[in-house]
Amino acid sequence: MLSWRSGKARIWGTKGPRFESHSSHPSEVPAVVDPWANRGSVKTLWYRKAMASLTKSSHILVFPFPAQGHMLPLLDLTHHLATHGLTITILVTPKNLPLLNPLLSSSPNIKPLVFPFPPHPSLPSGVENVKDIGNHGNAHIINSLANLQDPIIQWFKSHPNPPVAILYDFFLGWTHHLADQLRVPRICFFSSGAFLTAVLDHCCKDISSVRSQNLTVFHDLPNSPSFVREHLPTLIRVYNESDPEWELILDGHIANASSLAWVVNTFDALESQYMEYLTKLLGRGRVFGVGPVSLLSGSDPMTRGQSETGSGFDVIKWLDRRPDGSVVYVCFGSQKFLTSDQMEALETGLEDSGVHYVWVVKPEQGDLGRVGSGRGFVIKGWAAQVAILSHRAMGGFLSHCGWNSVLESILAGVMILAWPMEADQYVNARLLVEDHGVAVRVCEGPNTVPDSAELARMIAESMSEDKIEKIKAKEMKNKAIEAVKEGGSSSMELDRLVKELSNLRHE
């Protein structure tokens, strides 16, 4: 039987398993031969059945999409499943393996399965995560990962106790081909919210009609929301029906509806009406609202999501010297690069607002000219966002409205100054601004250069403690925390999910 070794992750290629050492001496790792390669089918079947009978917990294969906003919430959920007795194998490529370290060190139920990243002609060598290339690399990465289907099948068939289900990211809908061959069910995890999930499902199923309109009205959704074409999810705007890569992606999104269940990173107080819509769409009992899953991981807020060197303690010390609710945090996620004009306008707006600020910028975006006033703290690269937002000095969050940032802001009770740019962000901003009033919109568009004076005014106004959006943001924080407490809506849904997964068995 193949065993997992401390400090090593199994890497599979098309010719079977080998081991990759985490030490600096990989040459010391002995070659490993797959013991199942030459076994007779009868003996193999007997052994697998014997192992399955000895294994009390269900074995789940988790397949995340390699982008920060996708991986982190799925890993949070994975932590919860493992602490409730499920056996987990997480599939990653080598450069994404470090993101698993906190999980692997905290739970013996979780093991990594590492495959070499399949090369793609449009991806630079060494790129294995969207943060290293930006959102325009999504399609290429999805298609690259689809080339892992045969190695996964080989691993599955050689495993003495193979998974009973695949828990996968909604970007990886192509896994329906994989699940059909393996004859196991799929559970689709949506790192996004229920509103976006509903919008995306509608658009994918009627993409030709949606793309032909300048304005799409979603009559079937609660309150019949409408979006101009530029504010629809990126997939819908850039889809090319003559490109096989985009066909694979669209087919995968449509195929998500054939999954056994949908698991959504949201909670009732935030999106109950959209969760009810999804339940009607998919069928009662097949949709689980389990968020905010970041509360499930028990991870250190100072290191959550850290994939590069650096420390967040300097900014925390700086915040300690600032009054309560006096600082605005500025961050546009791991994938967005601002233009030089946008950077200049934003810098001027922040400085002229007279407000203290923490601004996260890309390391390659150069030096800023006006931060010498002392009101600003600039972070180049990774930032301890959860810890920053949770600090007592934080009064607002100028954000692109990516879903992870939305939930982290809600959990901190901090209002958002919304600048949606792409992907799910326009839908999320509408939910925050129009549906709940916990945010104000300060700008929109990936290439828009904000008016510095207007931006400065809105930032200054956001610091007022009696601003209605700030009050509502703090109320939403309490509702989010209640959802994951014992007896809360998300807590009960998590219990139901664990029970359903635990009851799965091979045919």
UniProtKB/TrEMBL annotation:
Pfam families, A to Z: UDPGT
UniProt keyword Metal-binding present: no
Entry annotated with the keyword Transferase: yes
Alphabetized GO MF terms: UDP-glucosyltransferase activity
UniProt keyword list: Transferase
Domain of life: Eukaryota
Alphabetical list of SUPFAM superfamilies matching this protein: UDP-Glycosyltransferase/glycogen phosphorylase
InterPro entries: UDP_glucos_trans
Protein family per UniProt: Belongs to the UDP-glycosyltransferase family.
Protein's UniProt name: Glycosyltransferase
Source organism: Mikania micrantha
Lineage: Eukaryota, Viridiplantae, Streptophyta, Embryophyta, Tracheophyta
